[in-house]
Amino acid sequence: MEYLLFLCVGAIAGVTSGFFGIGGGLVVVPLCVLLGEGVKSAIALSSMQMTFSSILGSYSHVKNKMFNPVDYLWLGLGGVTGAALGAYLLRFISPHFAALFFLVMLIIGFARIATAKAEGDKDAKTPPQSLAFAVGFFVGVYAGMTGVGGGFLLVAIMTGFLGAPIKNTVAISLFFVLFVGSGAFLSYVLSGMIDFAKGAFLSLGALGGVQGGIWLASKTSPKHHKWAVVAVYIMMIVIMIYKIAKGEI
């Protein structure tokens, strides 16, 4: 019964990953904790499902010609580098500061994506390698400091600042999550923190769910897809403000 629950959690995370272009940690970590896992164990399990679901999701998006992975390789490399620095910096800052940083980035991301065109700018081009690396590095630092994949922030930057269409941005974001998530997964494997039996069921559910999320996104108009992302931003901002105000983080 326990493994069936992990399978269901993985499926839910997979759907959100495929639809929003995120790693699914925002879903997996709290639900795994609810199932009795410690926070660190939940984060480690999340990195495992994140890796496998983003591999399959990225493959599906490339197959559907949503983006060229070669064009965004430097984005992923910047993410891995930034995440390592962010994780290191986390040792020197308080959880409260990290939470405030997370909230500020959420608000900026919300403002940018809410005012962006869902269809993107006609003149938008693939960013040069240096810019792609810089964006990936910045989002990677954010991810390393806050413990999330950074997918939502990347979607906001790509859509709000670079003018990319929301659907392409979601696909690129899932590719980016692959780099950040796999790096974290390897680290947790080497430290012996992953329960591979639970992680296998979680990942299996995520593999099925991510395909469902991608299918759902393909049936959703760019405008509705954008506002679904905005709605999740609002929900996350409200939750963070509540937790900070209550002194829980």
Topology:
Layout: H1 2-20, H2 25-34, H3 39-63, H4 73-89, H5 95-115, H6 129-146, H7 151-161, H8 166-190, H9 196-218, H10 222-245
| N-end to C-end Cα span | 33 Å
Unreliable stretches = none
Q: Give the percentage of residues in beta strands.
A: under 5%
Q: What oligomeric state is this?
A: single chain
Summed over residues and divided by their number, the pLDDT gives a mean of 81
Amount of helix:
over 70%
Structural class: mainly alpha
The largest sheet, given as strand count, sense and whether it forms a barrel, is:
none
Secondary-structure element order, N to C: HHHHHHHHHH
What is the number of domains?
A: 1
Radius of gyration: 17 Å
Strand tally is 0
Number of helices: 10
Global geometry: globular
Quick summary of this structure?
With 249 residues, this protein is mainly α. The chain has helices spanning 2-20, 25-34, 39-63, 73-89, 95-115, 129-146, 151-161, 166-190, 196-218, 222-245.
Structural commentary:
- Helix content is 78%, strand content 0%.
- The chain has 249 residues and is mostly helical.
- Helix 1 runs parallel beside helix 9 and helix 4 runs parallel beside helix 6 (129-146).
Summary tags:
single chain; 249 residues; mainly alpha; 10 helices; 0% strand; globular
